[in-house]
Design goal:
- The chain is of the alpha+beta class.
- 42% of the residues lie in helices and 19% in strands.
- The protein has helices at residues 43-62, 116-120, 126-138, 141-152, 161-179, 252-264, 281-290, 303-311, 317-331, 335-348, 354-366, 374-379, 392-401, 411-425, 429-442; strands at 2-11, 19-30, 80-90, 95-104, 193-204, 212-221, 226-227, 236-237, 241-245, 272-277, 296-301.
- Strands 9-6-5-10-11 form a five-stranded mixed beta sheet. Strands 1-2 form a two-stranded antiparallel sheet.
- The two termini are 56 Å apart.
Length: 443
């Protein structure tokens, strides 16, 4: 019968066959598999192998944790060994209790850190912090805790929902700082044209006396990044940058984050911007902040939102065709004709139906200069609705914050999640997650 043995060896690479230590991590017999349950290592065995291998490596690295063994205060005084201290290190799948040597200066009693957290800044691995942030931004904190338990095959206190919430808050806060500054910008080829979609979503509030508050989102991309999906009605984007904010700061964070996102997509003084919004003033305020940084800006009232406003108006059967006719004129950019027909319709319908039509009338008047010939733009293959891109509100807000109707949020609790979701949805996350994790650790 054959057996196997997995060994961790520590050796000097400069000297042949100079093994300083050898540890058997796992051993056992090799049997003929009869089904998928005894083919290779089971999940528990894989976790145990990772644990033992990582512990062996950590113990080998611990010898070099204290780099400078001289006292920084006493000249020519070397640090002496001063016992040991128990510490712990948390990795993606496993926790590792460790014993680390302590050092002390005999003259002034100076002692450098002897805990993993003191020496390296945190007792969590960077990869675990990243996963906690990603899962916490994607699922509820309790759902994230269950996922960690399933993959680790054990309940770990470091992965409880409170700890995941804390990680999301710290990393998300640091991302908010990165999203609002130009410090991380690299040299980017200027874009000839950019498309900007700005939208908002209402979130149920925890604040007393307030039912909800609005969170803002934006997605910026180059037109050539729009990829048609043959198997789905929704197209995808090969490259984009997102911005989001839940802060009540007069749009300050949202504007700065959107500007940085646009710069990362190549915004320059030679760039033409096509901006699509649902017509709300706070959305156009964000777009207006981009205008001085571009060659030109075309503001378009998003057809998707416009069509939905008309579709959601319920009228008696004999008046429906007139509303459809108004939509026909709007589709062709004939705003004056649409307003004339809408005024006539308001006068004709029963009193109980006038309110919604009057709101539509106000909506159209407020956005008259942003209603274009949608039909012509469609013929030319030009963007005329945010529905061509992935829905920013759906992907950045609704999927995480409205999945369960009982969810209520504070602005302070929601904003770090939005910063994470914006980074993950952008081209940025793989480039900046280490910076955010390190800054969160320092903070």
């Amino acid at each position: 019968m054959k057996g196997y043995r997995i060994i961790f060896e520590c050796y000097d690479k400069s000297t042949a066959n100079s093994i300083s230590s050898s540890t058997v991590l796992m051993e056992g017999g090799i049997k003929k598999p009869v089904n998928v349950f005894n083919y290779g290592f089971r999940h528990e065995a894989q976790i145990e192998l990772i644990r033992s291998a990582q512990t062996a490596l950590l113990n080998a690295q611990n010898e070099s944790l204290v780099g400078n063994k001289s006292c920084p205060h006493c000249k020519n005084s070397k640090l002496a060994k001063f016992g040991t201290r128990d510490s712990i290190y948390h990795d993606v799948f496993t926790d590792h209790p460790l014993t680390i040597s302590r050092y002390q200066c005999r003259k002034c009693n100076y002692e450098p850190g002897s805990l993993v957290k003191n020496i390296l800044g945190d007792s969590l691995s960077g990869d675990l912090t990243r996963l906690q942030a990603e899962l916490g931004a994607t699922y509820s904190f309790r759902e994230s805790e269950k996922l960690f338990t399933n993959f680790s095959r054990s309940e770990r206190k470091i992965n409880n929902h409170d700890r995941i919430k804390c990680t999301v808050e710290h990393v998300g806060t640091q991302l908010g700082i990165l999203h609002s500054t130009e410090g991380q910008l690299a040299a980017i080829e200027p874009a000839k044209e950019l498309v900007v979609n700005v939208d908002g979503g209402h979130i149920k509030s925890t604040e007393d006396g307030k039912r909800s508050f609005e969170a803002m989102t934006a997605v910026i991309y180059r037109p050539e990044a729009l990829v048609a999906n043959r198997t789905d009605t929704r197209n995808t984007l090969s490259s984009k940058h997102c911005a989001a904010s839940a802060n009540a700061d007069g749009q300050a964070q949202m504007i700065s984050s959107t500007i940085v996102a646009a710069l990362k997509q190549g915004l320059s003084l030679s760039t033409s911007i096509t901006a699509l919004c649902d017509g709300a003033e706070n959305c156009w305020q964000i777009v207006n902040a981009l205008k001085p940084l571009a060659a030109s800006t075309l503001c378009i009232l998003d057809w998707f939102h416009l069509a939905m406003k008309i579709q959601n108006i319920a009228l008696p059967e004999k008046f429906k065709f007139k509303l459809v006719r108004i939509k026909w004129h709007l589709w062709r950019g004939k705003i004056d004709n649409a307003l004339i027909r809408l005024k006539i319709l308001i006068d004709e319908v029963p009193e109980g139906y006038q309110d919604r039509l009057e709101k539509l009338q106000t909506y159209l008047k407020n956005n008259t200069d942003k209603i274009i010939n949608y039909r012509e733009r469609q013929k030319q293959g030009l963007v005329f609705t945010s529905n061509l891109a992935e829905s920013t509100v759906e992907s950045l807000i609704n999927q995480r914050c409205k999945g369960q109707q009982h969810m209520r949020w504070s602005r302070e609790g929601l904003d770090p999640i939005l910063q994470l979701r914006a980074a993950i949805a952008s081209n940025d996350w793989n480039k900046i997650w280490k910076i955010a994790v390190i800054n969160a650790t320092v903070a």
